[in-house]
Amino acid sequence: MIAVRVHHRVLETLGGVAVLVALAAIVWLPGMLYPPLTSRELGHVTDQEKRVNLQQAQSQIQNDFRGQLLQAIGGLVVVAGAAAGWQQLRLAREGQITERFTRAIDHLGSETLDVRLGGIYALERVAKNSPDDRPTVTDILSAFIREHARWAVGAPDGPEHPTATVDLRVPWLTARAPDVQTALFVLGRRQRHPQEYTLYLSRVDLRRALLEGAQMAGTNLRHANLFRAYMPDSNFEGGQMMDIDLRYANLRGASLQSADLRDAHLEHADLRRATLRGADLKGANLAHANLEGADLADVQADDRTIWPEARRL
């Protein structure tokens, strides 16, 4: 707000200076360009009436030029007013976006679920209305997911990864953590920005998440848990997915092209019609995975890679 007020004062000062300059130009410039006829210039004119006519003609030239000058200044004033109005609207819009952004961040820290959900959707609206803020919104929502859905595999008191037992009754993420699921929805349908960093969702608990058709190319999901996640037709092309838990995940028609799936856990995963072209599957476990119609051209595997029985035969 202080910056806006300073800007207003600067505009007012410049406007006052411009008015003084314009008035001076209207008063003095016509006389300088078309000065009155001198006695010497009129000396050869003996007829008094002709003298008067010449002086009046010179005055008329000055007045005509003054009128043209007024029209030109008037046009400039209109243009300057339009530019100033546009600038005021832009500043007002930026102020509104900043206010909405700040309020949305405050809502994310609320202990009330509904308030957090409102904050997430408010950030999505900010990203849509202000392209320059899209990378920041993406980073904030990624951090929100990492904070609220930790899967601290590797830590001394962290969870076993992958879990020794398979509990197919794990609730959907929409029931376990609806705010995390909503943040995923927003990230999955976001508009990409050239300056956006890679999505960093490493070591997160996204069991039974819903990400149908999500655009998550290049996302870092190392050591993440997406057990029984529903992600058909999603794009994880070039993703960093080493040691990821994708057991029983629905990846039908998904793109995993050139993804790093080293040591990934893909047991019982539905990979029908999935694109795995060029993916790194060294050490990956695809036991009982459904690879019907999957594109496996140029995949990288080693002697630790476990394939489904049907493929081994």
Give an overview of the whole structure.
- Helix 4 packs parallel to helix 7 (178-188) and helix 5 (134-148) runs antiparallel to helix 7 (178-188).
- The protein has eight helices and no strands.
- With 313 residues, it is mostly helical.
- Helices cover 47% and strands 0% of the residues.
- It has helices spanning 2-33, 39-42, 48-108, 113-129, 134-148, 173-176, 178-188, 309-312.
- The protein is elongated, with a radius of gyration of 35 Å.
- The chain has two domains: 2-36 and 53-100; 133-313, Pectate Lyase C-like (3 Solenoid), CATH 2.160.20.
The N- to C-terminal Cα distance equals 71 Å
Number of strands: 0
Low-confidence stretches: 1-7
| Beta-strand share of residues | under 5%
- Please bin the fraction of helical residues: 40-55%
* CATH C-level category of the largest domain: Mainly Beta
Shape: elongated
Gyration radius, to the nearest Å?
35 Å
The tally of structural domains comes to 2
**Average pLDDT number:** 85
Structural class label: mainly alpha
CATH topology term of the largest domain? Pectate Lyase C-like
Major sheet characteristics: none
Tally of separate helices:
8
Sequence of secondary-structure elements = HHHHHHHH
Task: Give the second-level CATH assignment, the architecture of the largest domain.
Answer: 3 Solenoid
* Oligomer status: single chain
Features:
single chain; 313 residues; mainly alpha; Pectate Lyase C-like; disordered N terminus
